Structure formats: structure tokens, C-alpha cells
Amino acid sequence: MERVEKSFSRSSSNYEQEAFLQNEISKKLLNEISGNFKNVLDLGCGTGFICKNREFTFENFLGIDISPNMLELHPKSDNCKTEISDFDSFSDFQNFDLIISSSSLQWSKNLKAIFEKFENLDSAIHLAIFTNRTFIELQNELEIVSPIPALAEILNFAKNFSYRVEKGVLEFSSSKELLEYIRKSGVSGGWNLSKIGKLKKMLNRDEVKKLSFEIVYLQKS
């Protein structure tokens, strides 16, 4: 997950200002959660948007993320802690009665294994995962294949979850602004954007000015 960690570490200082799409998704995820919880786990917690904006209460909160720079900006207290870890190697899910992950699990190297770990838990689980239809315009322009899973694949792993799918479009004034958004928000993640020649042609033509996204919200109580 090295490429993902570098992408988000580079953008950590201005992440919450630039990552408006991820923040809106987190807000919608939080709208589905209320009540009091003993132990809460946030997978891919970033700078702590979930912890800062939640209305539910908790006794203990743990946020895990692979970016130490992100975690430096996460709220911390005696009952709100962070841990440098990736969700693929994390194994203590059974200790939490609420598990949240917003706009993160699409970068998993083995999403199937994560859902298998979720299978026998009594925890409330709320997830938001981007699908491979996200930024399809950029994929077509640069002739690259999205590294994140398709909707059908995610739903196949999440057979015991209820779900809803949201689609939308981000519009920009220019291709340059579009690429600047991708860079500053950290969403390039596991994408290989090394085709510099194609990027330059894209900027010169200035034709790609929108980005479609598709996200699936999953819930298990």
C-alpha cells in the first residue's frame, strides 16, 4: 500500500480543505449512525473527520491509518487514540461494537478477506466505498485501469449488508483544476498516473473538465 500512503501523506496538511467529496460522503455516512457505543473503530481515519463531526457518543475510539502525517492531525485524548496500521493487517475487529470506514476500503489489497472478518461480528458496521466507475473520464483519457473494485465485486463480498448506490459528477473550470484537485485531495491513491505524456496532452487540450464518481454505502447492524 506504499503508493496510497505516499499520496495521502503528501496531501495531509490541506486534506480537509480539498477533500470536499470525501467529507460529504462522511457526512452522509454519519447521518446513518446514532446512539451510544463502547468501542468505535474508524478504518482509514485520515485527519479525523469522523471523530470531529460525529453525533454518536463513545467510551473509546480508535482510528487507524497508514499515513503518520494524517494521524498527527487527528484528535487525541485518553479515550480517542490512533494507530499507524493498514486495514488489511488489522485483526482485532471483535473488540468493537461500531466499525466505520469512509472512502478508504477501496484501496484494500484483499477486500474479500476484510469482509470475511466482518462476517461473524455482532458489531454495527457502516461503510462507504468508491467503485471502479469513479473518475472513468480520467481512466479513458489516460488509458489506465482503475485499481479499485467494481460494484458487483463489492456486493458479492458484502452479501449480508444492506446497501445503496450514489452516483454524481464533479465539475471543474479546466483540466488543470481537475488534476490539482486530484493531487491535493489525495484521491489518486493507488492509481498509476505516471503517463506524463498523456497528462500533458490532456492539459493542453483542456477537454476533461468533469469527474464522475460512484460510491456504495453498506450497512450491517
Number of strands: 7
Extract low-pLDDT stretches.
1-16
Q: How much helicity do the residues have?
A: 25-40%
General shape: globular
Mean pLDDT: 86
Question: What is the number of helices?
Answer: 10
Describe the structure concisely for a colleague:
The chain is α/β, with parallel strands linked by helices and 221 residues long. Helix content is 35%, strand content 25%.
Q: What are the defining features of this structure?
A:
221 residues, single chain, seven-stranded mixed β-sheet, 7 strands
Could you explain how this protein is built, in words?
This protein is of the alpha/beta class. It has one domain (2-132, 146-169, 213-220): Vaccinia Virus protein VP39 (Rossmann fold, 3-Layer(aba) Sandwich), CATH 3.40.50. It is built from 10 helices and 7 strands. The chain has helices at 2-10, 15-18, 20-30, 49-53, 68-72, 111-118, 136-142, 151-157, 175-185, 196-205; strands spanning 36-43, 57-65, 80-84, 98-102, 124-130, 162-171, 210-220. The protein has a 7-stranded mixed sheet with strand order 3-2-1-4-5-7-6, sandwiched between helices. Helix 6 links the parallel strand 4 (98-102) and strand 5 (124-130). The chain is globular. The chain starts with a helix and ends with a strand. Mean pLDDT is 86; it is low at 1-16.
